[in-house]
């Protein structure tokens, strides 16, 4: 059985809405509810912890906890609220900002962790753009065209063996603040991380155009 941590405590500054991003209405419901539906539909998930903005009540059947200053601080708070568990227990972390996640994506990530000896498995999609490294003195000068075949755009869900995630989240606050995902901290602390393929549709709502796209895709599903 697995524990799921849904992080929904971000401010959403790049979206520029009136309130926290996870509470923004998307295809008729607060954004975080779409991810909760997907997590609740997976039989292997026995507990869901939600990191929320201060003062927001926990959704029914979940454990609520106040989020931290940065994303990985919220993951740390959620893991603490989940209570103790065995070292090899799968702990799944998902962003409420990825409302297009499906039960199938979640199950594929959990199964992939069980099938490997890795410390973590992250949902990801092969990169389809050509990526150039820019900078090196002249801010706009192209330095390199990166070999695309080795590049994957990483998403959530990210599934960890509990001990590896706990070790990563025990790093100092500034290490957590600098990380854009938890798997990156696992890598820095000597852990092994694999990818499992996931559709590009599992996009992250960051800016207003993402919100419009997510609404269109969710309305298509309903
Ligand atoms: N202190 C934080 C920051 C982020 N998150 C969550 O982490 C996910 C990914 O974060 P991001 O999309 O960067 O959200 P925000 O931090 O809200 O966005 P911004 O950087 O534009 O303010 C989101 O589900 C967000 O709610 C969180 O729980 N706690
Ligand atoms: C964790 C994440 O969703 C992986 O793509 C992403 O890095 C978090 O978003 P942020 O905007 O970089 O905080």
From TrEMBL:
UniProt KW keywords: Isoprene biosynthesis, Nucleotidyltransferase, Transferase
Transmembrane segments: none
First-tier enzyme category under EC: transferase
Pathway(s) per entry: Isoprenoid biosynthesis; isopentenyl diphosphate biosynthesis via DXP pathway; isopentenyl diphosphate from 1-deoxy-D-xylulose 5-phosphate: step 2/6
Gene Ontology biological process terms in this record: isopentenyl diphosphate biosynthetic process, methylerythritol 4-phosphate pathway
Reactions performed catalytically: 2-C-methyl-D-erythritol 4-phosphate + CTP + H(+) = 4-CDP-2-C-methyl-D-erythritol + diphosphate
Nucleotidyltransferase in keyword set: yes
SUPFAM superfamilies listed in its UniProt record: Nucleotide-diphospho-sugar transferases
Keyword Disulfide bond annotated: no
One Pfam family linked to the record: IspD
The enzyme's E.C. designation: 2.7.7.60
Positions of the record's site feature: Transition state stabilizer: 14, 21
Gene3D superfamilies: Spore Coat Polysaccharide Biosynthesis Protein SpsA, Chain A
Site (Positions MEP for the nucleophilic attack): 148, 204
UniProt GO MF annotations: 2-C-methyl-D-erythritol 4-phosphate cytidylyltransferase activity
Assigned protein family: Belongs to the IspD/TarI cytidylyltransferase family. IspD subfamily.
Function: Catalyzes the formation of 4-diphosphocytidyl-2-C-methyl-D-erythritol from CTP and 2-C-methyl-D-erythritol 4-phosphate (MEP).
Cited NCBIfam families: ispD
Name under which the protein is recorded: 2-C-methyl-D-erythritol 4-phosphate cytidylyltransferase
Originating organism: Conexibacter woesei (strain DSM 14684 / CCUG 47730 / CIP 108061 / JCM 11494 / NBRC 100937 / ID131577)
């Amino acid at each position: 059985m697995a524990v799921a941590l849904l992080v929904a405590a971000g401010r959403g500054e790049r979206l520029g809405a009136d309130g926290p991003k996870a509470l923004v209405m998307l295809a008729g419901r607060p954004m975080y509810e779409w991810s909760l539906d997907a997590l609740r539909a997976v039989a292997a998930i026995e507990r869901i912890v939600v990191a929320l903005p201060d003062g927001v009540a926990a959704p029914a059947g979940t454990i609520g906890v106040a989020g931290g200053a940065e994303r990985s601080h919220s993951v740390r708070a959620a893991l603490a609220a989940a209570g103790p568990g065995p070292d090899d227990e799968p702990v799944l972390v998902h962003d409420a900002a990825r409302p297009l996640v499906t039960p199938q994506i979640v199950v594929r990530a959990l199964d992939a962790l069980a099938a490997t000896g890795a410390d973590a498995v992250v949902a990801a999609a092969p990169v389809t753009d050509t990526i150039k490294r820019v900078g090196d003195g002249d801010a706009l000068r192209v330095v390199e065209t990166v070999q695309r075949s080795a590049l994957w755009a990483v998403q959530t869900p990210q599934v960890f063996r509990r001990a590896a995630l706990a070790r990563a989240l025990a790093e100092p606050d500034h290490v957590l603040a600098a990380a854009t995902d938890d798997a990156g901290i696992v890598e820095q602390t000597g852990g092994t991380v694999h990818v499992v393929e996931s559709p590009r549709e599992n996009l992250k709502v960051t800016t207003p155009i993402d919100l419009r796209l997510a609404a269109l895709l969710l309305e298509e599903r309903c």
